[in-house]
Amino acid sequence: MRKVVLGAALLVALAACSSGTDGAGAKAAGPEALGPDGLRGLTLGVTKASTGAKLAAQPMSGLDGCLSYAFAGGLAPDPAALEAEQVAVAKADDLNRKAQDADSKILDPGLHGTAEDYAKSAAESAAAAKLSAQAASAITAVAELREARAAELAATGGAVFRGDKLRAIVAPPQVKTPEGVGAGTPLAEVHRLYDAKGLKPTPAGHFAVPVPGHPGWAYDFTADGPHVTYVVLVDPALECRA
Fold it and tell me: pLDDT category, 146, cuts 50, 70, 90?
């Protein structure tokens, strides 16, 4: 018999049917889910070396000491974007170091300082303040890049590694948790489903709940207003930022 390849949209539609069986009476495969078993062959705790062809060969981002990879066939790495990250981080680090150095060298004239001492101290303070403002602006630019890279990865899905260790699996927009939460889900539904399971706000302003059977791992829900924007399975203990 000739095989027929179904489009992704049709597969999803079939999975939603109440019969739950294919033409031969066997149980039909459901839509993808980001759950305790991971996603697309990436299991929790997998190493980068063992991912094979599941992910793009080259990272799309290297901010904060972690490498982010799209799923194979997803967003192609942009060498210019990777270079821009390196330049932005180097600039922020350099300005922050200079600002701290300048601040530590400000002369304290004390009660018996001369007019010249006070003038010198004021000039040093002004110079240090200018460097601090420049450093803050550069750090903000890196934070904006970080958010942009996270949104880009969420648009196609993928994984984040610290060295060879898996830190996170990022769900593409069409993928949901086993309970049905994904991009576009109202936050009220997230609370209804997960509050009793330990849902808590995170320092980053997201919401997280433990993954059953995997101590230390959590579902992390990023929201924009009243709806979820993307979902990540994450090991919060494996920090990216140095």
Answer: confident
List, in order, residues 6 or more apart from 46 with CB less than 8 Å away: 38, 166
Residue 202 in contact with residue 25, Cβ under 8 Å?
no
How distant, in Å, are the alpha carbons of 13, 23, 26, 181 from that of 20?
11, 10, 8, 20
For residues 88 and 138, the answer to whether their CB atoms sit within 8 Å is yes
What's the sign of the alpha-carbon dihedral 26, 28, 34, 39?
A: positive
How would residue 77 be classed by pLDDT, with cut points 50, 70 and 90?
confident
Among residues 26, 55, 28, the alpha carbon closest in space to that of 39 is found at 55
Average pLDDT on 65-76 reads: 89
Q: Is the pTM value of this prediction over 0.85? A: no
The domain defined by 34-75+156-234 folds into protein yfey like fold (2.60.460)
The residue length of the chain stands at: 242
47 CB contacts (<8 Å, ≥6 apart)?
164, 165, 166
pLDDT digits 0-9 by tens, 106-144: 988 888 889 898 899 999 999 999 999 999 999 999 989
Dihedrals phi, psi of 61, to nearest 5 degrees: -155, 150
According to DSSP H, which parts of the chain are helical?
8-15, 79-104, 115-156, 187-194
Which residues, 6 or more positions from 89, have their beta carbon under 8 angstroms from its beta carbon? 63, 142
What pairs with residue 21 in β-bridges? 27
Domain spans in the chain, listed from the N-terminal domain onward? 34-75+156-234, 79-151
CB 99 within 8 A of CB 132: yes
